[in-house]
């Protein structure tokens, strides 16, 4: 049962695979999130900007009503597990994989056993392989190319396997030498405010630029420069869907001219900012039926 009003849910793209659905989903809430519910599928989500460092989750059937743990950018809601989620965030874009329970029982040689450690770890999955798979699936269904469905099918199956391995070894899932979760949250939170620099991020994390770059690659499986560039494009997509003009978005993203922004945006997405805005607005007119989802 949901305690707050259900979000407005809009699907940008969806592909059906043998192991489940892969979607890009936009959600917006009229008020801060405070929802309780259970799903019939395993829901794996990689959330993009904007997101909130205040996001917390509780499994009340296992933990009681008062224990809340941080929810990271990559998280899993296991099928059949009641979860209570809270966040100050009111908008969210995510790449989502919905896995049917029967399609994943082979991961565990039967139904998975959701121990306390596995439940806690599922709320903040620090696994570069899984994160990169979802990121690549999101790019593929957003900008499909030759044999996209076949490629997504393969990546979805690989995601299922990697997720199974991760859950079986959840106690050792945090990479050695990576950034602490609070530093990752600081970086993500700063990136919601537009253009930044490595020097600024290193200062916020109380690290040198070299230390930050090395540890970030361990945690996220990519360079921090690439991550900043991708985050910039994702945030610019959010701004383009508002009433701001392309020139204003380019300035907010730290580009000297709109033409430089257009070149960078097209290189990353295959579309100009105006082409993306037109296509995305058409896609937004398609609203998914509301059902119990976290």
Notes on the structure:
With 294 residues, this protein is of the alpha+beta class. The chain has two domains: 8-172, Jelly Rolls (Sandwich); 181-284, Arc Repressor Mutant, subunit A. It is 44% helix and 18% strand. The protein is built from twelve helices and nine strands. The protein has helices at residues 60-63, 101-104, 116-122, 128-142, 148-168, 181-191, 198-205, 209-220, 224-240, 246-252, 258-269, 273-284, and strands at 8-16, 20-28, 33-37, 42-48, 56-58, 69-70, 74-77, 83-87, 91-99. A five-stranded antiparallel beta sheet has the order 1-2-9-4-7. It has a four-stranded antiparallel beta sheet with strand order 3-8-5-6. Helix 4 (128-142) runs antiparallel to helix 5 (148-168). Mean pLDDT is 83; it is low at 286-294.
Keywords:
single chain; 294 residues; alpha+beta; Jelly Rolls; Arc Repressor Mutant, subunit A; 5-stranded antiparallel β-sheet
How would you concisely characterize the structure shown here?
With 294 residues, the protein is of the alpha+beta class.
CATH superfamily caption of the largest domain: Jelly Rolls
Task: Please provide the ordered H/E string of secondary-structure elements.
Answer: EEEEEHEEEEHHHHHHHHHHH
* Widest beta sheet: strand line-up: 1-2-9-4-7
Structural class: alpha+beta
What would you say the CATH architecture of the largest domain is?
A: Sandwich
Number of domain modules: 2
Global Rg: 19 Å
How does the SSE layout of this entry go?
Blueprint: E1 8-16, E2 20-28, E3 33-37, E4 42-48, E5 56-58, H1 60-63, E6 69-70, E7 74-77, E8 83-87, E9 91-99, H2 101-104, H3 116-122, H4 128-142, H5 148-168, H6 181-191, H7 198-205, H8 209-220, H9 224-240, H10 246-252, H11 258-269, H12 273-284
Antiparallel strand pairs: 1-2, 2-9, 3-8, 4-7, 4-9, 5-6, 5-8
